[in-house]
């Protein structure tokens, strides 16, 4: 059995991956208390103890706005810590699959970002994630950098879908940003793709994976409420009002256009990622119990 080390098991992607990877290998699951990316000694200790053949790194500092006031902590976890993890993988000859983000781009394009496009993060979170990518490339070895975007799932502490369901149950009207464009990505589809990457032993390098299709946050919110109503979620919402990014300021700037090209991953896995609305429907079915 392939020895797999999975980090970030309390997050939404880690929770989704945990049972799926059981069919792929023998999984050692690590939360922040077991493997802390801000603590180099804990990384080295776990890697030396487990001696994994594959490491799937879902652990990260993900508080995008908070990173603006905690840049050192974000960099320690997403940059320096990831670099040390890559070094330990290289020493063992282990494959590293590291989850990265669309926030490494500035969102000024109007066509999907390819893996080779120039990076230019707008904030501290994106800068820290890019530093992690660059550290992995500098170490070399057998590593996959997997960028994704607009991730949501049933696990974890919160995401856009859960927030909309909570607010939609409390309010009759909501304003949602309509000038940020991306591809909502269900953790179920993302986790299945990661499992396939391990089983197929795909070549090292950088890949993009999201669900297919494009939406604004406003479009996504409308779809969430439509699908949730069909499943009899308790909702009070009557109106969703489109607003601009300027009307909803946040400490960190977001890329206006986060669509990632799926051509490389589709060719590599031999299948195109499912449409985001299909993923949303399945997530809500799972969430409703």
Describe what this molecule looks like in 3D:
This protein has 289 residues and is an alpha/beta fold. Helix content is 41%, strand content 18%. The chain contains nine helices and twelve strands. It has helices at 12-21, 40-50, 71-92, 124-139, 160-170, 187-200, 217-230, 263-269, 276-288, and strands spanning 2-7, 25-30, 54-57, 95-101, 143-148, 151-152, 173-177, 181-182, 185-186, 205-208, 215-216, 239-243. Strands 2-1-3-4-5-10 form a six-stranded parallel β-sheet, with helices on both faces. Helix 5 (160-170) crosses helix 7 (217-230) and helix 7 (217-230) crosses helix 9 (276-288). The longest helix is centred in the first third of the chain and has 22 residues, at 71-92. It starts with a strand and ends with a helix.
